[in-house]
Amino acid sequence: MKTPTEIEISLNALEHNIRFIKRLVKKNVRISSVVKGNAYGHGIEQYVPAAESFGIDHFSVFSVDEACRVMKVKQPGSAIMIMGWIPKDQLSWVIRNEIECWIFDLERLRLCIKEAWKQKKKAR
After folding, report:
1. Cα–Cα distance, 103 to 122 (Å, whole number)
2. Averaged pLDDT for residues 68-81
3. CATH 3.20.20.10 fits 31-119, yes or no
4. Reported confidence tier of residue 1, pLDDT bands at 50, 70, 90
């Protein structure tokens, strides 16, 4: 038998926590909110707009699928970083949408540069 699970986010607590972290870092530091794993079960589609309303404008995900979900709900100007492996067939989409990505090896770096050059964009 499944038990229904419900997660409730306190927007007041979220705002308090974001303000607290911002006080600890210098003004020019960009804070990235890690939302991999469906925002750790809280829901990407619910969490991202809430975090943006409190000044967060950078979101880190694990996969291209999660990046797509963030893309659908984020505000213009907010950035996305994929921390996980990006399959070669999805690299074009990542570069086209100006998504930042981690580089794990030299071959991946070469592929990113080649694709960015082809699209006349910066690899991020």
Report:
1. 14
2. 97
3. yes
4. low
* Torsion angle of C-alpha atoms 80, 90, 114, 79, degrees rounded to 10: -10
Angle at which helices 11-24 and 44-53 pack, to 10 degrees? 60
Give the Cα separation of 92 and 31 in Å (integer).
26
pLDDT value of position 41: 78
Place of tokens 């003004």: 27
Residue 32 to residue 44: CA distance in whole angstroms:
14
The predicted pLDDT at position 8 comes to 76
Report CA-CA distances (Å) from 86 to 36, 45, 68, 115. 14, 22, 13, 13
Give the separation between CA 68 and CA 86, rounded to whole angstroms.
13
* Alpha-carbon distances, residue 91 vs 21, 77, 79 (angstroms): 33, 21, 17
Residue located via tokens 């927007």: 11
Distance CA 50, CA 86 (A): 27
